[in-house]
Sequence to fold (462 residues):
Amino acid sequence: MPRSSVFGRILLLFSCLFMLAGEALARPGALPADGTRITEVRVEGLNRLSPATILRVMELREGGVFTEETYREDLQMISNIGRINPLELRIGWEEDPEAAGVILTVHVRENPMIREISIIGNVRFSRTQIKNQLDFAEGDILPTGIRASTIRSLQNFYRDGGYRAARVAVDVHPVAGEESMADVVITVNEGQRIRISALHLPGNDHFLDFYIRTRVSNSPGLLFFNNYFDQHAIEDDLAIIQSLYQRAGFLDAEARRGRFEYDEDKQSIELTYEIEPGPRYRVTEVRTEGVTYFTLDEIGRHTRSLASRTFSGRRLVRALDRVRELYGNEGYVDTDLSYRLERDREAREVAIVIEVDESPPVFVGDIRLHKEEFDFDVELNLFDRFMDWFAPPTKDETILREIRLVPGEKYRASDEQRTVQRLRNLGIFRQVRVTREPTVDPNVRNAVIEVEEDPAAAFVGA
Fold:
């Protein structure tokens, strides 16, 4: 290669590096050089705090000079105020050519204001006594790290009062429709159970309230039976309610925690789960993607019932099961199905797209029998032992003649199901199970037949 060509490439490389370095210095994320004069410091994003609260803790000041070390220390000092979201705190800058310096802008986002502080589960100490231990009150800006500091403070308070086993949980809930507000819920477990006296479900216009109450954990007891508050089940309850609505076609439904009213004297609580159903969607189209082994008409026989009607999660699951069965019965037992929903929120319509990940056909390898042996010290009582002595174990031939899976043929899901059903129909097994055992050949599965005999059947094997 000519020397001039090599020199030209080296020169081009250095030119590119120089340009990249210049662009990096010019990016907003790059910092001013140490010693650069600061002509102004601005604060943006405050609602209730004053800019003086931020500027007071900073070393980077108007008329001073910028250093990277001071910059990082100021970020920490602003975060230490305890009322600022540390994840959304940054200090930007821009050049001030007229004053030969830089203008710094502190971008912050305040924590929400505390609308209400609720205390649940307190018996030994009153609500007022507990609130007096807090370093925040209603109307204050929510302190950063409120959970850890409150738990530590109240557990020490209870410990000093002789309740060493007391446990405290702190939850912060944004107020619906008001991003700048939040509720703080403190739950104290003194060892006393809290009876649920009522569960309110505002916004529930589709299901009977009683039906939802039977599906969630935190619900009132029936008749003379009490049910007790479980703080850890709240998120699960909300997920259950939301799932019920979404499966019924309310795809945008949301369920959230409302206000909880705790009665210290009765040690009971009224719960509120707020429901926002949103629109109910109608299915306009059902499409399938990835299908090559069957015609779209063959697939459509199992899915077309979904279209031109209200979306139903139950119907969708049944349709997917039927398509999965169609593949499994032809030996494509490893085929995977999933779906996605394409929503038109304005029209309240949804298209269902069924995605099929087809697999090669699977064949039957060996048929293996596994008969469970009894643990006489645990499994069998005296009668079972007598029946086991009276009825000798079933012969392998009796089992094998009921098996519909054939080595070398396609591993059909229908043959597997028929095998299980035929063995159960013999009436001599407590349990029957068929598992597909992988082999060195990815397209071959051994069929492992696992049975557990029932000695009380008193059947003499053939």
Summary: Residues 1-8, 10-28, 374-378 have pLDDT under 50 and may be disordered. Residues 54 and 81 are 8 Å apart (CA to CA). The chain is about 30% helix and 30% strand. The first strand starts at residue 38 and ends at 44.
